[in-house]
Amino acid sequence: MKRKLNEGDVPTPVTQSADQNAVSFSTFGLDSRLLQAIAQEGFSAPTPVQTDAIPLALEGKDILARAKTGSGKTAAYLLPILEAILRRKADNRASRESTALILVPTRELAQQVTKVVKAFCTFCAQSVTVVNLTLKTSEAVQRSLLADLPDIVVATPARISQNINTSAFSLDNVKHLVIDEADLVLSYGYEDDLQVIERAVPKGTQTILMSATMTTEVEALKGRFCHDPVVLEPKEAKEESGGVTQYVVQCGEDEKFLLAYVVFKLKLIKGKSIIFVGDIDRCYRLKLFLEQFGVKSCVLNSELPVNCRIHVVEEFNKNVYDIIIAADEHEVLGEGRAKRKAKNDTENDRIAQAPAGDPGDTGQAQKKRAKSSKRAKEYGVSRGIDFHNVSCVLNFDLPLTSRSYTHRIGRTARAGKTGMALSFSVPSSLHCKIKALSFQPAAQDEANLAQISTDQAQRGQELKPYHFDMTQVAAFRYRMNDALRAVTPTAIREARTRELRQELLKSEKLKRHFEENPEDLKGLRHDGESRAVRIQPHLKHVPGYLLPRTGAKGIVKEEVGFVGLRKETDNRRRLAKMRKMGKAKKGAKRSDPLKTFNAKGRGK
C-alpha cells in the first residue's frame, strides 16, 4: 500500500482504489534491466503521473501532462523512451541514429535529466547512449559527440537550433520529442530556436510535453508540436501546495534583516531552508549580514559557473549545507516583463553574432551582452531543480506574480512531507524608509500579496499571519544595525567579485580533476565566509539577557506547525552524564583558593 508521512513524520496509509493498488512498474511490461534499475533506485510503486503517462507513451500517443516537480514526471517520459529503444535494438531494427530529443529550459535541469537517464541505464549502459549538450564545450566537441549518433540527446533549444543550423545534428530519424517544463521554454526566450526545431522535426514524431501549469505558452506548443494529444492532469497536480503551511509577515525593509537574524540564529526553524531574494546584490548583502552572526550560507545565482551551481544543489541535497540564498532574478521580473526581457535577450544574441565593428556597436559590447543574455536564459532556480528535504522556503523578497510564488513554495513539502513557506511583505507606507536597504519591486508588495492570497484561496490554501513578539525581537535591533553598517556597497562588490573568482577556479577543478578524484569533492565547500567586512566576534554569540525568560521560542507567539527534518545534535547520553556529575558535585565542599594559598611553599 502506498504511504505518506503525516505531520509527525509517521507513515499513514492513503486510500486508493483496487486498480491503483494493483499497479506496479512490472505491469507496464518494461524490460527486466529497466525494472532492475528502478528497484535499485528505490522506486516501489509508480506515482499518479507515471501510472497515467507510461502506458499511453508506450502506445506511441502524444501526451500533454501537468505535473509539478518531484511528482516523478522525468521517469514518466524516460522509461517509455528507454523501453522503445531497447525493443528496437532487440528486434535488430535500430540503425545508428539519434532516437530521442529532450528539450529543457536550463543547464541545471539538463544535468539532472542526464543523471536520471544514466541511473535507469545502469544495467543496459552498452545498449543506450546519452549526450548532454549543455555542458560548456566548444562547437567542435559538440559536433564530435553528435557524430557518434547517441540514442538520447538532452539540450536546451538554443543548443539544438545552433547544431541544426551548422548541420551537426539532424532530426530526420528522431522518433521521440520531449519538452520538459514546457511553460518555461517560451518565457525563457527560445521562440526562434523552437521555430527552427519545429521545421526540422519529421511528421509522426511522438511528442510529450511536461508542464507544472497550463498556460497560453503550453497551449501554443501543443498546437505546434502535438497531434491529437492526450491531456493528463493527475490528482496530485490538482492538490499542488497542499502540504505547505503558508505564512506572511508585514514588516519594514530593515525588519526583514532583523527577523532573518532572529529566525536563523535562534534556530526557530529547524532543517534546511531556501531563501529567495530579488537580485544578485541582495544575495551577497544577506550572506554577509548573516556571516556577522556566525550563520553560514551559500549563494545560488546565474552569475556563478554552471558546474558550481550544480554542485551546490547536489551538496545541499546531501545535507552538507542548511541554507541556500537564491537570486530569483528571472521570475521576479514578472510574467510580462520577463517575456519582454527574453525577447530583448534574443535580439542581443543576434547582435552579438554579427561581425565585430558594426556601426554604433563594438565587438566587446556584443560579447558582453551575449554572455549576459545567455546566462539569464539558461538559469532558473525556483523551477525544475529538485531540492530534497526542504523544511522552509523564505521569500525574503516577495515575487511579483502568484505564478512565481507557487513555483517557489513548491520547493518544500515534497514526497508526502509537510513544509513551511514564510514570506516578508513590505507595506507601501514603509517602502523606501531606508533607501540603502530598499528593493524597488517591493513597492508593489501589497498588490502582489493580494493577488497571491486570492490565487492560493482558489487552490484551497490560506496565507496566515506569522506572529512574532516584536517587543522581544526589538532587543536584537542594535546588533542588527551594527552588522548592517559593516555591509557596505563596497563590501558587497568585493564579496561578489571574490566569490565569482573562487567559484570559477572551483569550476575548472570540477571539470578537470574531480571526475578522477571524487574524494576531493569533500573539501570543496560553497558556504565559506566572504571576509569582505570587518570581523565582529561578539556578534556571533547571543547573550542571555537578550532572550526572553521562556527561551528562544518565546519570540513566536504561537506554534506554527513546521516540521524539523534535521536531527538534534545534542547527545542524550552525554547530557545525562553531565547532569549526573553536576548533582554529585553539588553537595561537595568547595575550597577557597585564597584561604589555602601558602606563600612559603608546599609543606611549610
TrEMBL record:
Main EC class the enzyme belongs to: hydrolase
Which part of the chain is the Helicase ATP-binding domain?
Answer: 54-232
Name the Enzyme Commission number(s) assigned to this protein.
Answer: 3.6.4.13
Domain DEAD-box RNA helicase Q, by residue range, is 23-51
Instruction: Indicate yes or no for the key word Secreted.
Output: no
Q: Which Pfam families match?
A: DEAD (PF00270), Helicase_C (PF00271)
Question: What keywords are annotated for this sequence in UniProt?
Answer: ATP-binding, Helicase, Hydrolase, Nucleotide-binding, Nucleus, Ribosome biogenesis, RNA-binding
> What is an annotated GO biological process for this record, any one?
gene expression
The molecule here is called RNA helicase
Q: Which organism is it from?
A: Heterodermia speciosa
Q: Which gene encodes it?
A: DBP9
